[in-house]
Amino acid sequence: MGLNFRRIPWFMTLLTAAAVAAFLSLGHWQWSKGNLRAAQAEEFARGGGPAEPLGTRSLADMARFQRVQVSGKLDPAHQFLLDNRTHGGRPGYEVLTPLERADGDVILVNRGWIPFSGFRDRLPDVSFPAEGEVEITGRVDELPVEGLASGRAPPDANAPWPKVTSYPHPAELGAMLGRPIEPRILLLDPQEPNGYLRDWQPPGLTAERHWAYGVQWYAFALLALALWVILGMRKTS
What we know:
Blueprint: E1 2-3, H1 10-46, E2 52-53, E3 67-74, E4 80-87, E5 90-100, E6 106-115, E7 134-142, E8 163-165, H2 170-177, E9 184-188, H3 207-231, E10 233-234
Parallel strand pairs: 2-3, 4-8, 6-9
Antiparallel strand pairs: 1-10, 3-5, 3-7, 4-5, 5-6, 7-9
Helix pairs in contact: 1-3
């Protein structure tokens, strides 16, 4: 028994090379995603300490996931419902409420997750009594981005408030409010009032899941190479 790779059809060699390259590329991509998620988990843990007063600074000046304390007036009359947000496999929305600071800057506060009512024409009641100046704490974060997900939908200017939107851009939300907003948002702390389910976690899958997927793709590359070698095993005289 010996190896005689010249007897393997050329198209099988080409197909194997393409498959191995694709599997290695996917494995590297998943491994890199795992490294990114691990770094974000560390950043999330570091930001969980005492809340830092925001003062006159922008959320852009703070580290992502940093807990901050900010003052302003919440606007319950002009809220957004982020669509396509799930929790425990259940569909629902995340509620974004504007907070106007003393200097006029507007921050969107994510007040948490609320379940889907089962009917698109029956939006959940996210109202609360208007208050004066409030001081709230939360984590600095980014608006969700679509990535591989589908269904991006800007808020409809003709729809009533609260406006349903999916993976919106900050400029689109600012246009609906008629004033610019900060690109970053604030994840309301769980102990704060006027909120919903707030089990905040680093975004995406865990690093371990991505690494496991990476190992699977690397294994597929080895399997494809092994099958090609088996094809080249022929009896030689």
